[in-house]
Amino acid sequence: MTTTVTSKGQVTIPKRVRDAAGLKPGTKVTVEYDHGAAIVKSTRKVGKSEYRKRLESVKGTFKSRLSTDEIMALLRGD
Fold first, then answer.
1. pLDDT tens for each residue of 7-66
2. For residue 2, what is the DSSP state?
3. Sign of the torsion formed by the C-alpha atoms of 47, 50, 55 and 56
4. What's the alpha-carbon Rg for the chain, to the nearest Å?
5. Which residues contact 12 (CB under 8 A, 6 or more apart)?
6. Cβ-contact 17, 42 below 8 angstroms
7. What pLDDT is recorded for position 41?
8. How much is the pLDDT for 9?
9. CB 75 within 8 A of CB 67
10. pTM exceeds 0.90
């Protein structure tokens, strides 16, 4: 995703990214520079129940004709 820095140094974080990161209005974030990249991190701790909700929201969404063994072989480079 691409966004533009305004003349005041502001950027808009796209809604999909805000939702995925759990960023809501008023959420504090840190901004760091690391090896040529600007990194934005939420300072809010994600509780286990919220983490579990995110995992459950994507559970079963991956569709493939490959077996688990075939997928693992591809990931390992076998």
1. 999 999 989 888 888 888 988 899 999 999 998 888 877 666 778 888 888 888 888 888
2. -
3. positive
4. 18
5. 3
6. no
7. 86
8. 93
9. no
10. no
Measured in degrees and rounded to the nearest 5, phi and psi for residue 38 equal -90, 125
The confidence score (pLDDT) of residue 32 equals 92
The closest of 25, 55, 33, 29 to 44, measured between CA atoms, is 29
29-34/37-42 β-pairing = antiparallel
The encoded tokens of residue 75 equal 């990931």
Q: Across the chain, how many H-helices and E-strands are there?
A: 3, 2
**What's the pLDDT score for residue 10?**
92
Distance of alpha carbon 14 from alpha carbon 74, whole angstroms: 32
φ/ψ (deg, to 5) at 70: -65, -40
